[in-house]
Amino acid sequence: MSGGSSERLSTQTDLFAEILDLPLPPVVKQNISYERQRKGRPALPKDLPRQRIEYHLDDQQMAEFDSVKPIGEEVSETLQYTPARLVVLEHARIK
Description:
Number of strands: 3
Helix content: under 10%
Structural class: mainly beta
Radius of gyration: 34 Å
């Protein structure tokens, strides 16, 4: 339909000519605290025996750099099952 709108009034612009000074609602601040749910598998118990395996750069890889200093490490744990015995293997990759 390409006709004029019947909802338009000739005095429609006068409807908003008066400026109202309405008070703003008060700002309500809420302190929301929660704990994020940990994703992934649960941590292995600390009382299990542990065996640490460290991975270092070999001499050929170290020769590519002027100097090599450890700046940290990444540790991942895997569970090794031997019948009647559980051991946690800590794989530490030196950074």
